[in-house]
Structure prediction request, 116 residues.
Amino acid sequence: MPGSTRSTPADRLDDDDYPAYTMGRAAEMIGATPAFLRALGEAKLIVPLRSDGGHRRYSRYQLRIAARARELVDTGTPVDAACRIIILEDQLEEAQRLNAELRRHAAENTAPAEGT
Prediction:
């Protein structure tokens, strides 16, 4: 249907935020244990959605964050510290993005007008 905003189940395959993975599958995918994923949830690094039956469901975006946490933990960083590092990395990335956007905006507003 042209112009329709309805999504189909196939559209969810490309959605990084769609909670498609069960805890067991998510843990398997990142090479961790369900307990590790629960620890990340307790630290509020990732908050899985719940299925109608109350089971945790994880998105690909959340799994990327969990995989980064696992990398840090595997090098000896405590889970709480790994979560804080990831949050700070995310905040730094956002600040850098905003800074670049503000610089572009400032450059556009200070560019000399044509013919002057």
Remarks:
- The domain at 16-110 is CATH 1.10.1660.10 (Multidrug-efflux Transporter Regulator; Chain: A; Domain 2).
- The radius of gyration is 20 Å.
- Residues 79-110 form the longest helix (32 residues).
